[in-house]
Known about the structure:
By secondary structure, this protein is mainly beta. The chain contains no helices and ten strands.
Amino acid sequence: QVQLVxxxxxxxxxxxxxxxSCAVSKSILSINTMGWYRQAPGKQRQWVATITNGxxxxxxDSVKGRFTISRDNAKNAVYLQMNSLKPxxxxxxYCNRALSSYYYDWGQGTQVTVSS
Length: 116
């Protein structure tokens, strides 16, 4: 069973930065597309960013130009650099497969709270 462990969240003021990490318990070489997702209180989980094995990235309009997704296949890890954070970015952030017919079991996520 694949485990996903997200970390790096915290409390930050608006305009600040955080770098999230996702450790995957298996090789991600065979996973073409990995993604970050987030779920704000009372809302459904939404897609934030994706990255392919070839390094192609895609971002939700709400984070474009502020967030950067990256992956390190040698470390089985995916990262999300978040800059110019806004209060509306407050959510629990998760990583998982993307553009696939199924997801791995979701990890516990990492809480990001942006104060105004």
